[in-house]
Design a protein that fits this description.
Elements lengths: L1 H28 L3 E2 L2 H10 L2 E6 L4 E6 L5 E6 L7 H7 L4 E4 L6 H26 L32 H15 L1 H6 L7 E5 L6 H12 L3 E5 H4 L6 H15 L3 E6 L2 H4 L11 H16 L6 E7 L7 H4 L6 E4 L5 H12 L10 H6 L6 H17 L7 H13 L10 H20 L6 E5 L9 E4 L10 H22 L7 H16 L33 H28 L1 H14 L1 E3 H8 L1 H7 L1 H7 L1
Parallel strand pairs: 1-4, 2-5, 6-9, 6-10, 7-8, 8-9
Antiparallel strand pairs: 2-3, 3-4, 11-12, 11-13
Helix pairs in contact: 1-4, 5-7, 9-11, 13-15, 15-16, 17-18, 17-21, 18-19, 18-20, 19-20, 22-23
The protein binds adenosine-5'-diphosphate and zinc ion.
Length: 612
């Protein structure tokens, strides 16, 4: 492959030199002295003219100068019927007519350098983008570079995302034997979207699918498709699919699909034309190919929310798989996978390391193990010890790769109490949605989350339910206050949600006695911006004051009720938070067991934990 690129480069240099030479020689031929017509006639009469070519607008020729040199000349013809006569009389040895003024030479002379410059410029840009590669092959998909390389990575190399692996197994089965699968009537998705934070192993998973199935893996990236030249992205997409069809069964992988797949029309000033074209091409290709061919597309992104809905429609990336940040157990497993490649001292307890690295993703852990090995090597040790690993943690946290937030032990504790506060209030407040999951693993901007899922779809919400919801929202902040005697910024989102709900209760739902059953809300969510005239509140300043008071009262009451619940159940709060610090994620069952000692006595979760 590399050689090919080299040849491409050489060819361009060669063409460049050739053109240069050509233009140079054209220039030389055309060095012509411009003579006034009178001088030209004088030279004829002096017998110095050797050769003349007469065109309608130009006379060219050669004369012999005084020093014996032959000089090219040109002159603008004048109405001169005697010219031919004169030339005959004074023995001009050769004269002829020319129908037209030549166009090629002047054209080349005028435009040649320009064309050369443009070509050179294109070449430079290409060089910059591709790191000097692929100078000739503008539209070729870079996926080509991966041809025939089967990956040896398997699911065993990917740790800690069992659910994602489970979902992908079906794809593996299909790729292994597409024909068999169809006979059974299985319906296979064309495209699978894997999403999750950077470094969580999305690429690794895709490779493992190819590796497990033993099919070729073609990888490309959305950012490669969005290049400077119009149409290049689209043609790359076409090439990628073409390649896939030819090597079916196989797996096509597109990393950073959000680079092409962003919602169209998003942003001010319309879309990015080139990107849109590429996206359209991708959609067309996806519609055009049939899973029967045995080609599966896997795309990865860390921003599934910005993707164009068209991409997610049935028949496209209709299967979506989350690759979460690893929890404690996941980190432990990933550590084990990577520790296989180094020599560990006997004293090493990887579980301790896993505990010390909340917020680390797979890529961080790979990096950590590598750093530890380097540190041990520098100290000329025989094996990697615990202190090397500990030191490596600090290095990775401080290192340039890890720009995102790291969580200290104290922060982890605060987050655990905060989330436990939410969860406990939710468990105890009657009418609250059941707690489905509590987590202190960061997800997006949130440091932790408490997931409540309603039992059934609800179309009406009672005042009591809303008040309960407010108490749950404030439970996080209240728990922080109670335990640490200090408040943090972590509750900002909760507070803004609570305030807006309370405001709605007063202004929209008529749920405050002081205001009464009025809906005072103005249509603030105008379809068209700029209709300011409609935005003035329809109530007096006095009413506005009452609204503020009422909102404050409602929020304060919710806070008081959260405080009461948490104070009455301080022991449970502590138990929940401590378990959360230990396990980082608790599901509904585990929360129940912790909060109901009777049930806990039966199953002894503590011991089960140790065995697992
Ligand atoms: P992504 O595509 O999600 O950004 P990658 O798949 O490129 O992340 O991961 C980068 C590297 O991190 C991998 O090559 C691997 O060494 C390591 N890694 C990431 N996730 C895992 C995991 N779940 N198990 C083992 N190694 C992992
Ligand atoms: Zn919260």
């Amino acid at each position: 492959m590399k050689d090919k690129n080299k040849w491409g480069l050489l060819a361009w240099v060669f063409i460049f030199l050739l053109l240069l030479y050509f233009i140079q020689s054209v220039r030389q031929i055309n060095v012509e002295q411009e003579l006034p017509y009178s001088t030209f006639k004088k030279y004829i009469k002096a017998g110095e003219i050797i050769k003349v070519t007469v065109a309608p607008e130009l006379i060219k020729g050669q004369y012999k100068a005084a020093d014996g040199k032959v000089v090219n000349f040109k002159t603008v013809p004048m109405p001169d019927p005697k010219l031919v006569e004169d030339m005959e009389q004074y023995n001009v040895s050769q004269f002829s007519g020319n129908l037209e003024r030549g166009w090629l030479m002047p054209f080349l002379m005028n435009w040649g350098p320009m064309v050369l410059l443009i070509l050179f410029w294109l070449w430079m840009i290409k060089g910059m983008q591709g790191g000097g590669k692929q100078v000739m092959a503008f539209g070729r998909s870079k996926a080509k570079l991966q041809t025939a390389k089967k990956t040896k990575i398997t699911f065993a190399d990917v740790a800690g995302c069992d659910e994602a692996k489970e979902e992908l197994k079906e794809i593996v089965e299909f790729l292994k034997d597409p024909a068999k699968f169809q006979k059974l009537g299985g319906k296979i998705p064309k495209g699978v979207l894997v999403y999750g934070s950077p470094g969580t192993g999305k690429t690794l998973l895709a490779k493992a699918v190819a590796g497990e199935a033993g099919v070729p893996f073609f990888s490309s990236s959305g950012s490669e498709f969005v290049e400077m030249f119009v149409g290049v992205g689209a043609s790359r997409v076409r090439d990628l699919f073409e390649q896939g069809r030819r090597s079916a069964p196989c797996l096509l992988f597109i990393d950073e699909i959000d680079a092409v797949g962003r919602h169209r029309f998003a942003g001010i000033g319309g879309g990015h034309d080139e990107r849109e074209q590429t996206l359209n091409q991708l959609l067309v290709e996806m519609d055009g190919f049939d899973t029967k061919e045995g080609v599966i597309l896997i795309a990865a992104t860390n921003r599934p929310d910005v993707l164009d809905p068209a991409l997610l429609r049935p028949g496209r990336f209709d299967r979506q798989i989350a690759v979460p940040m690893p929890d404690l157990k996941g980190r432990d497993e990933i550590l084990k996978v990577h520790a296989k490649s180094i020599k560990l001292a006997d004293e090493v307890n990887l579980n301790v390391i896993a505990r010390r690295t909340p917020g680390f993703v797979g890529a961080d852990i790979a990096n950590l193990v590598n750093e530890a090995a380097l540190l041990a090597a520098r100290k000329e040790r025989q094996s990697v010890g615990m202190d090397d690993l500990e030191e490596a943690i600090d290095r990775v946290i401080a290192g340039p790769q890890r720009k995102s937030r790291m969580i200290s032990d104290r922060e982890k504790k605060i987050i655990a109490y905060h989330e436990s506060g939410h969860a406990l209030v939710a468990k105890i407040t009657p009418g609250s949605d059941p707690v489905h999951k509590v987590s202190i693993i960061p997800r997006g901007p949130a440091l932790g989350y408490t997931l409540q899922l309603p039992l059934e779809d609800k179309y009406l919400t009672t005042r009591q339910e809303i008040q309960g919801k407010l108490a749950v929202l404030l439970g996080g902040r209240v728990a922080e206050e109670m335990i640490f005697n200090e408040i943090t910024t972590g509750a900002q989102n909760d507070l803004s949600k609570a305030t807006s709900i309370a405001h709605k209760m007063v202004v929209e739902f008529g749920m405050s006695e002081k205001i009464g059953a009025l809906s005072l809300s103005q249509p603030s969510e105008e379809v068209f911006l700029g209709r300011d005239f409609n935005r003035e509140p329809k109530y007096s300043n006095k009413t506005a004051e009452i609204i503020d008071e009422e909102v404050k009262r409602i929020v304060t009451e919710a806070k008081t009720s959260a405080e009461k619940i948490l104070r009455d159940n301080a022991a449970k709060l502590k138990a929940l938070a401590e378990k959360l610090i230990e396990k980082e994620i608790l599901d509904a069952d585990e929360v129940d067991r912790l909060l109901n000692p009777e049930a806990a006595n039966e199953t002894k979760p503590e011991e089960q934990e140790k065995k697992a």
